[in-house]
Amino acid sequence: MAAQITYRRVYEESSPQDGQRVLVDRVWPRGLRKEDAHLDEWLRDVAPSTELRRWYSHEPSRFTEFRRRYRAELRDAAHHEAAGHLRDLASHDRLTLLTATKDVDHSQAAVLAEWLTGKKQ
């Protein structure tokens, strides 16, 4: 896997230490112009389903169940291609997963980082 996989808010300034910068949200972040995002990719198909996002509603008390359901979604055919592509990106030097979520430790980016590294964050 990657030498380093991190995650943070897309609104934060980019850094040379970010490596590949990949937005993992299904919808574009509010108030952010695409040219200001400094992304290498927007991989919306790896994001949780709309149904799961709405159920979770960024409630930290639901995070454990969200993680379980999202990891199950990552095994589904609907996410297969995007998840495989993200694994390929993670096999290189550095990867930063970006999200608009305020609580990044309870986000899909955190789950993806844990999934890619094989450990819980």
The overall strand count is 4
Distance between the termini: 16 Å
Helix content: 25-40%
Oligomer: single chain
Question: Could you walk me through the main structural features you see in this protein, from its secondary elements to its overall organization?
Answer:
- The chain is α/β, with parallel strands linked by helices and 121 residues long.
- It has one domain.
- It has four helices and four strands; from the N terminus they run E-E-E-H-H-H-E-H.
- Strands 1-4-2-3 form a four-stranded parallel β-sheet, covered by helices on one side.
- It is globular.
- The two termini are 16 Å apart.
- The model has no long low-confidence stretch (mean pLDDT 91).
- It comes from Streptomyces kaniharaensis.
- InterPro entries: YeaO-like (IPR052552).
SSE map:
Blueprint: E1 4-9, E2 20-23, E3 41-42, H1 50-56, H2 63-74, H3 77-90, E4 94-99, H4 108-117
